[in-house]
């Protein structure tokens, strides 16, 4: 734990001022500078389309704001191993440090150990803004004892960190007052159904009021508790994100009804996630051949839900002990042994404060610059060209700043006449390890971004570049270290021109594979 | 008349400890154990033994 992180190293650019070469802001195009006014809708991260009080709560929260997720880090502490329900996509016996999915951890922590770990991580990672408790069981099972003990200490020791928790909702109504008392502003409820018939295929049993319930009865109780808890939270002004696991053939179409139901009860965000299913995980679904959705199947359901509760698409389905920016997991730097060896750790929020001030300064310029790029495309391309998908290699900061071979995921942007927006991410195995590329891994990357027209990278080697081009995906390194959205719009303008000339082909109709394996993994 | 925890299958989640009405369950050497002197199998207290009803690994069984 020797190196203190500098802001320079975070941006990798050696510059802390807002970018100098910024296109002039448009003449208040159609009276609205917010991207949410474009036909793509929904993307509006920013004060223009949001109650300022809500914006204040979410702007630095990586899980509640798509924009914030490029800049801010979260940390989950695994203090809540007990659970009160059984889900068919979860096997609580499974624990592997190479696996990234909810419900999985490497080390369970006591509240005291959690506090120390949080203080250690906060010193090392100035982007840290949020501490969440997400299990690995349910944060409110076993009376939420460890969860609230952790938050009580944290509130006193590190008041600048936001607290949040996630729950299946079964025990939520009885804990809403306590949640409000600890100033927990953000609660995530996993809601996979609003129809007990559907629920009975997802939940074999629940434990409620000193009894194990099964079948329709169990699903009915769970549903009622979830809806009641959601209403109680939103009526107190607590922001609620709803997570739904998309299970093809079980609740895929049903998620539209879930979206309506949670929106009408005041949910702030709806996060539809793909089922992670593999026989090796030992889950009921995994062992019985239930598959997860493809990338396009997921996108179809997400798109259909747009206009309802605001959609979240940047979820990385983190482990219950994840540390760092979404899309990275630095948990291994902070194992119990290493924390123990650190001795006493003081609370000092200076680095985090200056990082937050920097992001705040950069933000204002970014909104204007995105709007200008969007107006340019609208004026020059018109609306006749269909949007395309672009895969982006990034380390954060909304910039194209990762090498193709080093990327562990690609962020997917949809760009069209209505603007550029983040629509998801695809996890991949790192193509380049120890200086040489691996052909099998490259095939996996190609499958993961097969529905994309281009891939934006800071740098790329000759071999992968050739393979991508042969697969019909254009490798693009000319926007290295620039901002993603502005670059995507500039690319789209050029693409539309080339499409008109017949030089490039549309990739409409292509699908891609969602890789549900590890974020932290080496190749198997 | 008591229950026991099959330690090989226990995930050490502690759900049982929180539910036991007799404070019969505790963590000993990294695994949960039931004190047979305190365990009543929840008779007269609940419909069924609480540890067995809540256990995700179904490893709380009659001793």
TrEMBL record, chain B:
The keyword Coiled coil does not apply. Residues 1-30 form the 4Fe-4S ferredoxin-type domain. Keywords: 4Fe-4S, Electron transport, Iron, Iron-sulfur, Metal-binding, Transport. InterPro entries: 4Fe4S_Fe-S-bd (IPR017896), 4Fe4S_Fe_S_CS (IPR017900). This is Ferredoxin. It comes from Azospirillum palustre. Its cofactor is [4Fe-4S] cluster. The lineage of its organism: Bacteria, Pseudomonadati, Pseudomonadota, Alphaproteobacteria, Rhodospirillales. It comes from the Bacteria. One of its GO terms (molecular function) is metal ion binding. It holds the Pfam family Fer4_7. The keyword Iron applies.
